[in-house]
Design brief:
Length: about 325
Amino acid sequence: GGSSLTGLGPGPTRVVPHPSTWPHRPVFVRFNPRADKMAPISGWATRWGPDVTGKKPPAAVDLNAPVNTETWMEFESELFIGRIVCRFKGVGCPANEAAIKTKDEYFRRKRCSFQVLVQGRFKEEIPTHMVSTGNEFNKPFQERPPTYLVTAGLKFFIHLTPGLEADVLCDEPYYRSLLGGTVTTLTVQKPEKATSALEDFEEDTELMGGEFKGSKLSISRRCKILSEPTVACNYVYNTSDVYTFDYYQSVLLFDQYALDIGIVKLKLDRHLNGQALQIMAKHADGRYLYNFEIFHECLLPKSDQAPPGFNWT
């Protein structure tokens, strides 16, 4: 609870299954054990492709979202009901490559290395300044760069994102910013006109009202309005419209778990101390709208959620 992400404490854990069973090895996208109110509805991944039969979901330990199958997984939490679509460049389906439908051409055309799209409806009306996205960890990072460099870097990012709060040098590192001011593309539609989650989305925020009404605001203007808490508090996520939060960028390579910063690829497992990156949205009172962990096999040697008896040699 509370609006702070610090002091998370160890929190619930759930062992990941052996990577040989992961449908999209070397990655495994699952509900974060902290988000214990999340439940699957349909479309989870199996080793042979997405399950669209609507059967009973697998055990929590095996439940994971499909990647590059051009299908979605539906889920529900106490604040949100929706679907997630994952596209990660370079990730396959070892037991059945025919299940992979996202072509390399998609990433070239979209100029991105990954995309996670979350579409759905809110179950409670929430002012936009109460919902943040980001990452939260419960162990310190390793091999951290010099403090002065981190501080300078954070100042730069805070300048770009007014609502950013971050501490990456503490024992429980985190960074977060307001969801509406952070996602790459935000689309708000009436349910009867909502675009399929598999389509391409254009920025469309007119239904947010206020400054958005009657004008096609640019992405940068929307980010400016919805990242500043004192302005974002004038806007709400309602319970009637369909919201599409589209996260995509070209720096993060999930197949290699690395940041591609042009001159060099920075391997994230050196720093993350066995902890997975997340795609999440969280209410200021501590409840999650959604929280997906994106595991990679390279994290397991240091992870407290690695399968028991896993042989690392």
